[in-house]
Task: inverse folding
């Protein structure tokens, strides 16, 4: 029996998918935590700093300005960053596997 030598994971292997899922989970948790800070921060600011949140900005109180004007762009920015970073993680994993396979192919060519 000739076991296959250990090398870089195949792009469809369990090791590759596990590594990618682990990195994307960390990214997801970071994005979710950022969203929760914004979501829970507004009521906390209203409770602990009511005079600050009652200030007027562009005709709105600061509370309504953050909630009505700034919250949706903030969520879109989080989403955009998540998608961009997630794609970069996938591309980095694929490039790492491709580099490993390329190096493996060069070693086989040198052996011939």
Result:
């Amino acid at each position: 029996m000739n076991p296959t030598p250990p090398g870089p994971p195949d792009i469809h292997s369990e090791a590759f998918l596990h590594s990618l899922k682990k990195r994307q989970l960390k990214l997801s948790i970071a994005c979710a935590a950022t969203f929760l800070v914004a979501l829970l921060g507004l009521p906390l600011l209203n409770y602990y700093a009511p005079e600050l949140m009652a200030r007027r900005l562009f005709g709105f109180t600061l509370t309504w300005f953050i909630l009505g004007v700034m919250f949706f762009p903030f969520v879109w920015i989080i989403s955009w960053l998540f998608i961009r970073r997630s794609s970069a993680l996938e591309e980095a994993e694929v490039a790492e596997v491709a580099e490993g396979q390329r190096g493996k192919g060069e070693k086989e060519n040198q052996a011939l």
